[in-house]
Amino acid sequence: MKRKITKNFMINLLLILLLCLVLLMPKSSMKAAEEGLLLWFNVMIPTLFPFILLSNLIINSNIIYYINIFLTPIMRRIFGLPGVAGYAFVTGLLSGFPVGAKITADLLKKGAVTLPQAQYMLTFCNNASPMFIIGFIATGLFGRAAIGILMLMVIYTANIITACIYRIVYAKALSHNHHEGSAKHTSRKITFSIFDESIMNAITLIVKIGGYIIFFSIIMNCLKLIPIQGHILKDFTFGLMELANGTKLLVSASATLPVRFVLLSTLVAFGTFSVHAQTASVIHDTDLHIKPYIMAKLINAVITFITAFLFIPLL
Q: Which UniProt keywords apply (predicted)?
Protein backbone atom coordinates (compact mmCIF):
# COMPACT_ATOMS: atom_id res chain seq x y z
CA MET A 1 0.00 0.00 0.00
CA LYS A 2 2.81 2.39 0.95
CA ARG A 3 4.62 1.55 -2.28
CA LYS A 4 1.47 2.33 -4.29
CA ILE A 5 1.04 5.70 -2.55
CA THR A 6 4.70 6.56 -3.26
CA LYS A 7 4.27 5.57 -6.91
CA ASN A 8 1.13 7.73 -7.26
CA PHE A 9 2.91 10.63 -5.60
CA MET A 10 5.83 10.41 -8.04
CA ILE A 11 3.48 10.27 -11.02
CA ASN A 12 1.54 13.29 -9.77
CA LEU A 13 4.78 15.16 -9.14
CA LEU A 14 6.03 14.43 -12.67
CA LEU A 15 2.73 15.59 -14.17
CA ILE A 16 2.88 18.86 -12.23
CA LEU A 17 6.50 19.35 -13.31
CA LEU A 18 5.53 18.69 -16.94
CA LEU A 19 2.68 21.21 -16.70
CA CYS A 20 5.06 23.84 -15.30
CA LEU A 21 7.53 23.26 -18.13
CA VAL A 22 4.75 23.58 -20.72
CA LEU A 23 3.61 26.86 -19.14
CA LEU A 24 7.16 28.21 -18.99
CA MET A 25 7.94 27.25 -22.61
CA PRO A 26 4.66 27.58 -24.53
CA LYS A 27 6.26 28.09 -27.97
CA SER A 28 8.55 25.09 -27.70
CA SER A 29 5.77 22.89 -26.32
CA MET A 30 3.37 24.03 -29.02
CA LYS A 31 5.92 23.18 -31.70
CA ALA A 32 6.41 19.69 -30.24
CA ALA A 33 2.65 19.17 -30.10
CA GLU A 34 2.33 20.42 -33.67
CA GLU A 35 4.99 17.99 -34.91
CA GLY A 36 3.26 15.14 -33.11
CA LEU A 37 -0.10 16.14 -34.57
CA LEU A 38 1.29 16.36 -38.11
CA LEU A 39 2.95 12.97 -37.73
CA TRP A 40 -0.36 11.49 -36.61
CA PHE A 41 -2.36 13.18 -39.39
CA ASN A 42 0.07 12.63 -42.28
CA VAL A 43 1.45 9.19 -41.40
CA MET A 44 -0.61 7.32 -38.82
CA ILE A 45 -4.13 7.95 -40.10
CA PRO A 46 -3.55 6.97 -43.74
CA THR A 47 -1.44 3.91 -42.86
CA LEU A 48 -3.32 2.54 -39.83
CA PHE A 49 -6.98 3.43 -40.35
CA PRO A 50 -7.59 1.15 -43.39
CA PHE A 51 -5.94 -1.82 -41.64
CA ILE A 52 -7.90 -1.31 -38.43
CA LEU A 53 -11.24 -0.89 -40.21
CA LEU A 54 -10.77 -3.92 -42.47
CA SER A 55 -9.51 -6.05 -39.56
CA ASN A 56 -12.62 -5.16 -37.54
CA LEU A 57 -14.83 -6.24 -40.45
CA ILE A 58 -12.90 -9.48 -41.01
CA ILE A 59 -12.97 -10.48 -37.33
CA ASN A 60 -16.72 -9.77 -37.20
CA SER A 61 -17.40 -11.94 -40.24
CA ASN A 62 -16.96 -15.63 -41.05
CA ILE A 63 -13.82 -14.85 -43.09
CA ILE A 64 -11.76 -15.47 -39.96
CA TYR A 65 -12.99 -19.09 -40.02
CA TYR A 66 -11.44 -19.70 -43.44
CA ILE A 67 -8.23 -17.89 -42.43
CA ASN A 68 -8.01 -20.28 -39.49
CA ILE A 69 -8.36 -23.34 -41.75
CA PHE A 70 -5.76 -22.06 -44.22
CA LEU A 71 -3.10 -21.00 -41.70
CA THR A 72 -3.51 -23.62 -38.96
CA PRO A 73 -0.98 -26.15 -40.40
CA ILE A 74 1.69 -23.43 -40.61
CA MET A 75 1.01 -21.76 -37.26
CA ARG A 76 0.68 -25.06 -35.38
CA ARG A 77 4.01 -26.31 -36.70
CA ILE A 78 6.02 -23.12 -36.14
CA PHE A 79 4.38 -21.47 -33.13
CA GLY A 80 1.97 -24.04 -31.70
CA LEU A 81 -0.96 -21.66 -32.28
CA PRO A 82 -4.27 -21.80 -34.19
CA GLY A 83 -4.40 -20.40 -37.71
CA VAL A 84 -6.12 -17.14 -36.68
CA ALA A 85 -2.91 -16.20 -34.89
CA GLY A 86 -1.30 -16.06 -38.31
CA TYR A 87 -3.73 -13.31 -39.29
CA ALA A 88 -2.66 -11.23 -36.27
CA PHE A 89 1.00 -11.97 -37.02
CA VAL A 90 0.89 -11.00 -40.71
CA THR A 91 -1.33 -7.96 -40.21
CA GLY A 92 0.79 -6.83 -37.26
CA LEU A 93 3.90 -6.98 -39.45
CA LEU A 94 2.29 -5.12 -42.36
CA SER A 95 0.38 -2.41 -40.49
CA GLY A 96 2.63 -1.62 -37.52
CA PHE A 97 2.09 -0.67 -33.87
CA PRO A 98 -0.36 -1.22 -32.17
CA VAL A 99 -2.52 -3.07 -34.72
CA GLY A 100 -1.00 -6.48 -33.92
CA ALA A 101 -1.96 -6.05 -30.26
CA LYS A 102 -5.41 -4.76 -31.24
CA ILE A 103 -6.15 -7.80 -33.42
CA THR A 104 -4.82 -10.15 -30.73
CA ALA A 105 -7.15 -8.55 -28.17
CA ASP A 106 -10.10 -8.76 -30.59
CA LEU A 107 -9.43 -12.45 -31.30
CA LEU A 108 -9.33 -13.11 -27.55
CA LYS A 109 -12.66 -11.33 -27.05
CA LYS A 110 -14.23 -13.37 -29.86
CA GLY A 111 -12.95 -16.63 -28.33
CA ALA A 112 -10.82 -17.40 -31.38
CA VAL A 113 -7.76 -17.78 -29.14
CA THR A 114 -7.31 -18.52 -25.45
CA LEU A 115 -5.69 -16.20 -22.90
CA PRO A 116 -2.29 -18.02 -22.83
CA GLN A 117 -2.27 -18.08 -26.64
CA ALA A 118 -3.06 -14.37 -26.83
CA GLN A 119 -0.41 -13.47 -24.24
CA TYR A 120 2.13 -15.44 -26.25
CA MET A 121 0.98 -13.77 -29.49
CA LEU A 122 1.66 -10.35 -27.99
CA THR A 123 5.37 -11.20 -27.78
CA PHE A 124 5.77 -11.24 -31.56
CA CYS A 125 2.61 -9.95 -33.31
CA ASN A 126 3.02 -6.25 -32.50
CA ASN A 127 5.79 -4.66 -34.60
CA ALA A 128 6.81 -1.67 -36.69
CA SER A 129 5.54 -1.75 -40.28
CA PRO A 130 7.69 -1.97 -43.44
CA MET A 131 6.24 1.38 -44.50
CA PHE A 132 7.55 3.03 -41.33
CA ILE A 133 10.98 1.38 -41.54
CA ILE A 134 11.59 1.70 -45.28
CA GLY A 135 9.45 4.75 -46.03
CA PHE A 136 9.84 6.97 -42.96
CA ILE A 137 13.25 6.01 -41.54
CA ALA A 138 15.30 4.79 -44.51
CA THR A 139 13.89 6.87 -47.39
CA GLY A 140 12.56 9.90 -45.51
CA LEU A 141 15.34 10.38 -42.93
CA PHE A 142 18.38 8.55 -44.33
CA GLY A 143 17.60 8.98 -48.01
CA ARG A 144 18.69 5.37 -48.59
CA ALA A 145 15.99 2.74 -49.04
CA ALA A 146 18.58 -0.08 -48.90
CA ILE A 147 19.18 0.66 -45.22
CA GLY A 148 15.49 0.12 -44.56
CA ILE A 149 15.49 -3.27 -46.26
CA LEU A 150 18.45 -4.40 -44.16
CA MET A 151 16.85 -3.00 -40.99
CA LEU A 152 13.65 -4.85 -41.85
CA MET A 153 15.59 -8.11 -42.16
CA VAL A 154 17.29 -7.51 -38.80
CA ILE A 155 14.11 -6.60 -36.90
CA TYR A 156 11.95 -9.38 -38.31
CA THR A 157 14.68 -12.01 -37.88
CA ALA A 158 15.06 -11.02 -34.21
CA ASN A 159 11.27 -11.09 -33.86
CA ILE A 160 11.05 -14.69 -35.08
CA ILE A 161 13.87 -15.68 -32.71
CA THR A 162 11.97 -14.04 -29.84
CA ALA A 163 8.81 -15.94 -30.82
CA CYS A 164 10.71 -19.24 -30.77
CA ILE A 165 12.15 -18.47 -27.33
CA TYR A 166 8.74 -17.57 -25.93
CA ARG A 167 7.19 -20.70 -27.39
CA ILE A 168 9.40 -22.57 -24.92
CA VAL A 169 8.40 -20.17 -22.11
CA TYR A 170 4.67 -20.67 -22.81
CA ALA A 171 4.99 -24.36 -23.78
CA LYS A 172 3.17 -25.70 -20.71
CA ALA A 173 0.31 -23.19 -20.91
CA LEU A 174 -0.10 -23.72 -24.65
CA SER A 175 -0.16 -27.52 -24.32
CA HIS A 176 -3.11 -27.27 -21.93
CA ASN A 177 -5.03 -25.19 -24.48
CA HIS A 178 -4.01 -27.01 -27.66
CA HIS A 179 -7.57 -27.83 -28.73
CA GLU A 180 -9.16 -24.62 -27.45
CA GLY A 181 -9.59 -21.21 -28.93
CA SER A 182 -10.07 -22.10 -32.59
CA ALA A 183 -12.32 -19.92 -34.71
CA LYS A 184 -15.83 -21.26 -35.22
CA HIS A 185 -17.79 -21.03 -38.45
CA THR A 186 -20.58 -18.49 -38.33
CA SER A 187 -22.98 -17.21 -40.95
CA ARG A 188 -22.83 -13.67 -39.59
CA LYS A 189 -23.30 -11.13 -42.36
CA ILE A 190 -21.68 -7.73 -42.60
CA THR A 191 -24.51 -5.29 -41.92
CA PHE A 192 -24.48 -1.50 -41.73
CA SER A 193 -24.58 -1.69 -37.95
CA ILE A 194 -21.42 -3.84 -37.90
CA PHE A 195 -19.82 -1.50 -40.44
CA ASP A 196 -20.69 1.55 -38.30
CA GLU A 197 -19.36 -0.21 -35.20
CA SER A 198 -16.11 -1.04 -36.99
CA ILE A 199 -15.68 2.56 -38.17
CA MET A 200 -16.24 3.97 -34.67
CA ASN A 201 -13.86 1.41 -33.21
CA ALA A 202 -11.17 2.39 -35.74
CA ILE A 203 -11.71 6.13 -35.14
CA THR A 204 -11.51 5.70 -31.36
CA LEU A 205 -8.22 3.81 -31.63
CA ILE A 206 -6.74 6.32 -34.09
CA VAL A 207 -7.64 9.24 -31.81
CA LYS A 208 -6.05 7.46 -28.83
CA ILE A 209 -2.86 6.88 -30.81
CA GLY A 210 -2.77 10.56 -31.75
CA GLY A 211 -3.13 11.59 -28.12
CA TYR A 212 -0.26 9.37 -27.02
CA ILE A 213 1.99 10.62 -29.83
CA ILE A 214 1.36 14.28 -28.94
CA PHE A 215 1.78 13.68 -25.19
CA PHE A 216 5.09 11.83 -25.52
CA SER A 217 6.33 14.35 -28.11
CA ILE A 218 5.91 17.07 -25.47
CA ILE A 219 7.76 14.92 -22.90
CA MET A 220 10.64 14.46 -25.37
CA ASN A 221 10.75 18.22 -25.91
CA CYS A 222 11.12 18.75 -22.16
CA LEU A 223 13.84 16.09 -21.90
CA LYS A 224 15.91 17.87 -24.54
CA LEU A 225 16.31 20.76 -22.08
CA ILE A 226 18.37 18.61 -19.72
CA PRO A 227 21.93 19.99 -19.94
CA ILE A 228 23.80 16.90 -21.15
CA GLN A 229 26.56 17.07 -23.71
CA GLY A 230 25.56 15.71 -27.11
CA HIS A 231 26.01 11.96 -27.18
CA ILE A 232 24.25 9.22 -29.10
CA LEU A 233 23.39 7.36 -25.89
CA LYS A 234 21.55 10.46 -24.72
CA ASP A 235 19.64 10.54 -28.02
CA PHE A 236 18.84 6.84 -27.67
CA THR A 237 17.60 7.32 -24.09
CA PHE A 238 15.42 10.29 -25.02
CA GLY A 239 14.23 8.40 -28.10
CA LEU A 240 12.74 5.70 -25.87
CA MET A 241 9.87 8.12 -25.21
CA GLU A 242 8.36 8.31 -28.72
CA LEU A 243 9.21 6.30 -31.81
CA ALA A 244 9.08 8.78 -34.71
CA ASN A 245 10.87 11.59 -32.86
CA GLY A 246 13.31 9.09 -31.37
CA THR A 247 14.30 7.82 -34.81
CA LYS A 248 14.80 11.41 -35.98
CA LEU A 249 17.18 12.03 -33.07
CA LEU A 250 19.25 8.93 -33.81
CA VAL A 251 19.44 9.51 -37.57
CA SER A 252 20.80 13.04 -37.01
CA ALA A 253 23.14 11.98 -34.17
CA SER A 254 26.89 12.52 -34.51
CA ALA A 255 27.95 8.87 -34.79
CA THR A 256 29.04 6.45 -37.47
CA LEU A 257 26.46 4.77 -39.67
CA PRO A 258 26.95 1.28 -38.13
CA VAL A 259 26.39 2.64 -34.61
CA ARG A 260 23.26 4.53 -35.66
CA PHE A 261 21.99 1.49 -37.57
CA VAL A 262 22.36 -0.83 -34.56
CA LEU A 263 20.73 1.62 -32.12
CA LEU A 264 17.93 2.50 -34.54
CA SER A 265 17.10 -1.17 -35.08
CA THR A 266 17.09 -1.74 -31.32
CA LEU A 267 14.85 1.28 -30.68
CA VAL A 268 12.33 0.26 -33.35
CA ALA A 269 12.25 -3.33 -32.07
CA PHE A 270 11.63 -2.17 -28.49
CA GLY A 271 8.85 0.15 -29.62
CA THR A 272 9.30 3.05 -27.11
CA PHE A 273 7.09 3.93 -24.14
CA SER A 274 4.60 5.75 -26.35
CA VAL A 275 3.96 2.53 -28.26
CA HIS A 276 3.70 0.56 -25.02
CA ALA A 277 1.10 3.05 -23.77
CA GLN A 278 -0.84 2.60 -27.02
CA THR A 279 -0.62 -1.18 -26.63
CA ALA A 280 -1.84 -0.97 -23.04
CA SER A 281 -4.84 1.07 -24.21
CA VAL A 282 -5.96 -1.56 -26.76
CA ILE A 283 -5.70 -4.50 -24.34
CA HIS A 284 -7.01 -2.80 -21.18
CA ASP A 285 -10.50 -4.31 -21.48
CA THR A 286 -9.12 -7.87 -21.71
CA ASP A 287 -7.25 -10.13 -19.28
CA LEU A 288 -3.98 -9.58 -21.16
CA HIS A 289 -1.11 -8.09 -19.12
CA ILE A 290 1.19 -5.30 -20.30
CA LYS A 291 4.21 -6.17 -18.10
CA PRO A 292 5.00 -9.52 -19.79
CA TYR A 293 4.62 -7.76 -23.14
CA ILE A 294 7.14 -5.05 -22.21
CA MET A 295 9.56 -7.69 -20.91
CA ALA A 296 9.24 -9.58 -24.20
CA LYS A 297 9.95 -6.37 -26.12
CA LEU A 298 13.00 -5.76 -23.96
CA ILE A 299 14.31 -9.24 -24.74
CA ASN A 300 13.47 -8.68 -28.41
CA ALA A 301 15.46 -5.42 -28.32
CA VAL A 302 18.53 -7.22 -26.94
CA ILE A 303 18.26 -9.91 -29.63
CA THR A 304 17.82 -7.18 -32.27
CA PHE A 305 20.93 -5.37 -31.00
CA ILE A 306 23.00 -8.56 -31.42
CA THR A 307 21.45 -9.35 -34.82
CA ALA A 308 22.02 -5.80 -36.11
CA PHE A 309 25.64 -5.97 -34.98
CA LEU A 310 26.10 -9.19 -36.99
CA PHE A 311 24.50 -7.54 -40.06
CA ILE A 312 26.86 -4.52 -40.03
CA PRO A 313 29.16 -5.94 -42.78
CA LEU A 314 26.16 -5.79 -45.17
CA LEU A 315 25.76 -2.01 -44.72
A: Membrane, Transmembrane, Transmembrane helix
Which residues are CB-contacts of 34 (< 8 A; sequence separation ≥ 6)? none
Say whether 242 sits in a helix, a strand or coil.
Answer: coil
Compute CA distances 89 → 95, 101, 111, 300, whole Å: 10, 9, 17, 16
- Exposure string for 234-270, b = 16+ CB within 10 A, e = fewer: bbbebbbbbbbbbbbbbbebebeeeebbbbbbbbbbb
Using the CB atoms, write b or e for 199-230: b if 16+ within 10 Å.
eebbeebbeebbebbbbbbbbbbbbeeeeeee
pLDDT band for 273, please (50, 70, 90 cuts).
very high
How far, in Å, are 36, 224, 237, 278 from residue 218 at the CA level? 8, 10, 15, 16
Of the candidates 81, 69, 68, the one whose C-alpha atom is nearest the C-alpha of residue 114 is 81
- Tens-digit pLDDT profile for residues 147-194: 999 999 999 999 999 999 999 998 887 776 554 555 554 445 667 787
Distance CA 157, CA 62 (A): 32
Nearest CA among 202, 183, 196, 209 for reference residue 66: 183
* Contact by Cβ (8 Å): 230, 255: no
- Taking only Cα atoms into account, the Rg of the chain, rounded to an integer number of angstroms, comes to 20
Sign of the dihedral through C-alpha 202, 206, 212, 216: positive
pTM: 0.84
Phi and psi at 114, nearest 5°, equal -90, 170
Question: Could you give the CA distance from residue 267 to residue 106 in angstroms, rounded to a whole number?
Answer: 27
